[in-house]
């Protein structure tokens, strides 16, 4: 129960399994989009910074063997207006001397490589200048005149305010768009889940509105194809439940009907005994006969009750222990020993024949009940001085694997061909046996049939090869082992 309670709501689980992966995918996509946008923004700003550096390089020249830079303030103001940040520049001459600009601008780090994105000798790097980060483009510009030539270094840096502003804008735009996407997706998924689960909710309503006695099946077409096996399983379960309830009702009706007569007889015998005792001068022989009749009736009632309980247990497979390897030979031998005293009292010759130790997979307790009923019936309906033979052997039949067979053969009155199917019905008794044992219950072969069905065994009634009598043959599938 605790494991089932942890499952929680199907709707919430579907939403979690759909929305959590979707949210993770959107988050990964948002990070990817954000960094791609930053890369594009850096590329755009670096291009603008390189354009400013080239514009400054065009104003560097050699005059009278000296490098000069003609940088008007109007040009710098134009740069500042375009980039929305503060501009710093520095022009270094052929011998490393300061030509123009900010002399303390951070130098180019030695490990910075030339940018491959532009056809120019330019390197980009970041540094701190006056306690604020700046991005610097360092361009090597060739200069020459008739008397000298060389390369000057032109550095132009800008503050990161504009870049950071665009970064924040990209971040907020990305988060807003992806958040809107997740919200809309969550709403659509929620609506879709409610729509998809509507048939299940309708099925639940139909289950809740059913009367307790209504065990009819549900229409599988009410739910989706994936849920139909569950509905079919529920219908199958209710069919089995109907069978179980019908069996219980039949058992109660049969038990009450069959027990009513012996209990009535027992009550009558007890009242007659009490009447004899009240007379004062009662006949001891007559009283003894009444008490003996009460004992016989009690024995018959106990026997009937035990048979009814065994039949109910066999019908519902309620024996404890499940199935396990069972020695059929040993089980039959044990039952023969248990009932041998009854056979001796009736001077019946009881023999047992087994082709080795044959083992099958079965329920030991139910198999014991099956053998007891077969042998008990044979002893009850075999005349005094008769014979009963028990056989256990393995045989291969066409179309079947090797099977274990149990045979009980007697030389009693047998069962007519027309009655061999009906004797398996509860309380039905063959006409040839009723005068032999008037107190019989008619439940023995019903119990045998139910136990055989639980073991997927076939049961057959045949005339004895000796002429008179009956052979009951039970064929069990799947021999596990035969020990000779």
TrEMBL record:
Catalytically driven reaction(s): ATP + protein L-histidine = ADP + protein N-phospho-L-histidine
UniProt entry tagged with the keyword Plastid: no
Keywords (A to Z) from UniProt: Kinase, Membrane, Phosphoprotein, Transferase, Transmembrane, Transmembrane helix, Two-component regulatory system
Compartments where located: Membrane
E.C. designation(s): 2.7.13.3
Residue ranges of domain HAMP in the record: 194-246
UniProt domain Histidine kinase: residue ranges: 254-480
Stored Gene3D superfamilies: 1.10.287.130, Histidine kinase-like ATPase, C-terminal domain
TM region(s), chain numbering: 14-35, 175-197
Taxonomic superkingdom: Bacteria
Entry keyword Flavoprotein: no
Class of enzymatic activity (EC top level): transferase
GO molecular function: kinase activity
PANTHER family in the cross-refs: SENSOR HISTIDINE KINASE YKOH, SENSOR PROTEIN QSEC
Protein name: histidine kinase
């Amino acid at each position: 129960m605790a494991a089932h309670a942890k499952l929680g709501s199907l709707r919430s689980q579907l939403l979690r399994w759909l929305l959590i992966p979707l949210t993770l995918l959107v988050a990964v996509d948002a990070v990817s989009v954000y960094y791609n946008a930053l890369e594009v923004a850096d590329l755009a700003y670096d291009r603008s910074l390189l354009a400013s550096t080239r514009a400054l390089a065009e104003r560097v020249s050699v005059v009278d063997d000296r490098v000069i830079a003609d940088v008007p303030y109007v040009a710098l103001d134009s740069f500042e207006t375009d980039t929305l940040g503060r501009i710093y520049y520095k022009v270094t001459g052929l011998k490393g001397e300061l030509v123009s600009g900010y002399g303390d601008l951070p130098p180019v780090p030695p490990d910075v490589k030339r940018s491959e994105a532009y056809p120019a000798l330019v390197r980009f790097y970041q540094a701190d200048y006056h306690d604020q980060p700046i991005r610097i483009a360092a361009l090597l510009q060739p200069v020459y005149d008739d008397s000298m030539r060389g390369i000057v270094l032109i550095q132009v840096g800008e503050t990161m305010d504009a870049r950071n502003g665009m970064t924040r804008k990209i971040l907020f735009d990305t988060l807003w768009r992806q958040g809107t996407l997740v919200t809309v997706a969550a709403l659509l998924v929620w609506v879709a889940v409610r729509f998809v689960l509507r048939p299940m909710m309708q099925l639940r309503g139909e289950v809740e509105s059913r009367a307790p006695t209504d065990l009819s099946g549900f229409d599988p077409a009410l739910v989706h194809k994936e849920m139909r096996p569950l509905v079919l399983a529920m219908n199958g379960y209710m069919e089995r439940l109907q069978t179980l309830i019908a069996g219980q009702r039949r058992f109660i009706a049969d038990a009450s009907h069959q027990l009513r007569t012996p209990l009535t007889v027992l009550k009558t015998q007890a009242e007659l005994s009490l009447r004899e005792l009240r007379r004062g001068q009662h006949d001891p022989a007559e009283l003894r006969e009444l008490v003996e009749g009460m004992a016989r009736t009690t024995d018959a009632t106990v026997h009937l009750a035990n048979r009814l309980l065994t039949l109910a247990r066999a019908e519902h497979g309620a024996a404890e222990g499940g199935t396990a390897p069972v020695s059929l030979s040993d089980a039959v031998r044990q039952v023969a020993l248990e009932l041998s005293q009854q056979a001796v009292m009736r001077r019946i010759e009881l023999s047992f024949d087994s082709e080795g130790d044959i083992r099958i997979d079965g329920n030991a307790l139910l198999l014991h009940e099956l053998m007891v009923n077969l042998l008990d019936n044979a002893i009850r309906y075999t005349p005094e001085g008769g014979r009963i033979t028990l056989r256990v052997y393995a045989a291969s039949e066409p179309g079947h694997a090797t099977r274990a067979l149990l045979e009980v053969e007697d030389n009693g009155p047998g069962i007519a061909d027309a009655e061999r199917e009906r004797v398996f019905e509860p309380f039905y008794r063959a006409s040839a046996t009723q005068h032999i044992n008037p107190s019989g219950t008619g439940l023995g072969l019903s119990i045998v049939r139910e136990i055989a069905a639980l073991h997927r065994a076939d049961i057959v009634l045949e005339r004895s090869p000796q002429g008179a009598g009956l052979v009951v043959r039970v064929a069990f599938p799947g021999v596990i082992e035969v020990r000779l």
